[in-house]
Amino acid sequence: MKVLVTSKSFGRHAPEAIATLRAHGIEPVWASKPSLTAAELAAEVPGCDALIVGNDTVDAGVIEAGDRLKLIHMHGTGLDGIDVERATARGILVANAPGANRNAVAELSLALMLMAGRRIDAHIDSLKAGKWERSAGFEVSGKTVGLLGLGNIGRRLVELLAGFEVQILGYDPQADPGWAREHRVILAADTDQVFAGADFLVLALPLTAETTGIVDARRLALMKPGAYLVNTARGGLVDENALCAAVRAGQIAGAAIDVFAREPLPADSPLRMPGIILTPHLAATSVETSGNVSTMVARNVVDMLVLGRRDRAVNARQLDQQAGAKG
């Protein structure tokens, strides 16, 4: 069996992941270049039994070109680049690696909160420019952290914030009230309450039809003038033009953004402005996370292709229903 790998980080920090595949008769074949367009990926997928992808677009054209394709596995968590519906219609399993990156993303979220509040980026630039300028910033301690999303990453961030004496105001329609009480998280009635109450608003949401553009001009207007927005989740959650306008007008104090609607970030992006900290999609790029994800992905690929397990696929239930309808 052959697996086409487009993810640049698969196996880089966990060579045992590659060995696991080969030990079960699965040969990983790397794509011809690091970043493929959907058309280029469609040209390379024929003859492959599975795909291990990074932030690639796996659209209907790629799926239809995959004449032997049985599995599409994301080397990470986000599935917004994969046409899961079309894959399901073709009987193809789709899987990801939930939880493997939780600590890395939560840590970067915390780091960006600290950087934004104390304006560390601006002070670094100033000092490198030969200046000696100091200005007072804001501590995270004692503030209200608004958290949209209480999944693996959101819950880990709550744990990391335990020593900061913050109040956490969270919203997640699937939140566990018992867990929230145990970790002193106040569950908001809706997203507006979180926007209005947060000193630091952190996004820990998947990108779906419901969450796309959730940070828009109306909700930004609800935020405190001294509040900061932190996004390490998905770029499509934020209306970037509305964010720039809010920062420029002093409607909010600033933002720290790791993910973007277009990546790499265009040179002419309005986000390249004072008051907004930018990092190049670093959230899950730790050595530990890369190794954890690769190990999980390799194990899942073996279980699905060789052992016939379907329970780890995100579309397992739909595929079972589809098979039942045909039967």
Structure report:
- With 327 residues, this protein is α/β, with parallel strands linked by helices.
- It has 2 domains: 139 residues, 3-Layer(aba) Sandwich (Rossmann fold), CATH 3.40.50.720; 177 residues, NAD(P)-binding Rossmann-like Domain (Rossmann fold), CATH 3.40.50.720.
- A 7-stranded parallel beta sheet has the order 8-7-6-9-10-11-12, sandwiched between helices. Strands 2-1-3-4-5 form a 5-stranded parallel beta sheet.
- β9, α10 and β10 form a beta-alpha-beta unit.
- The relative contact order is 0.15.
- The model has no long low-confidence stretch (mean pLDDT 95).
Question: What is the level-2 CATH architecture name of the largest domain?
Answer: 3-Layer(aba) Sandwich
Q: How many discrete structural domains?
A: 2
**H and E order:** EHEHEHEHEHHEHEHEHEHEHEEHH
Structural Rg: 21 Å
Tell me the number of helical segments per DSSP (H or I, 4 or more residues long).
13
